Amino acid sequence: MSTGLIIALIVIVAVVVAVAAVLTLRTRGPKHGTSLKRRFGPEYDRAVARHDGDTRAAERELAERVERHGDLRERPLESAERERYEARWTAAQERFVESPRDAVAEADRLIAELAGARGFPADGHYEDQLSALSVHHAHHVEGYRRVHRVAQARANGAQDGGAGTEEMREAMVGARALFEELIRPSRRDGGRHRPDSGRHGADGDRTSPAASRGHRTPSLLHRRQAKES
Length: 229
Prior knowledge:
Blueprint: H1 3-40, H2 42-50, H3 55-69, H4 79-95, H5 100-117, H6 126-136, H7 141-155, H8 165-183, H9 209-212, H10 217-228
Helix pairs in contact: 1-2, 1-3, 2-3, 3-6, 4-5, 4-8, 5-7, 5-8, 7-8, 8-10
């Protein structure tokens, strides 16, 4: 076999391998993107928007989050510990009626502490904590992001935390969804201490321990709006 023929065969093989690699990437890419979109939900759309519509850049970012935090295992809470967090959240909701700014700031602190207790990054590493939460609770992190934004704006001297009462109320409602996800016993807890099972407020939401004593805390976030209307 001549040298020229050998070189030609090598070139052909290299071209075939390259084409196969490209086709493989094109085949796997959409599936990978679909998997990420399913996993992250609204966080996927937010990442795409932050990257100005560049889905590949957004998917790289989300894939990196999964690689960093996907193996995280949430630590179970003791019953007494869970009850303390529930009591603090109830108090924050009740405080919203008279001081929404203070209530939002407390909600921000409480979720940060609760996430840390469940095993997520803590010690003030908000961005890292939010990134990890987005991997495991993607559909509920936006509320935390919003209360943190309001709390930080207030800490930096912005009047009303840079937000109106309605915006703060919506942030609290969104943050409550994440709080309930974090406070709920995981499968590894064996389903112990499922708080307020079977109890629902007038609006269909689960009520807290304080609610069972006559305080319907979910509706408290709506009372201030009713007074101001």
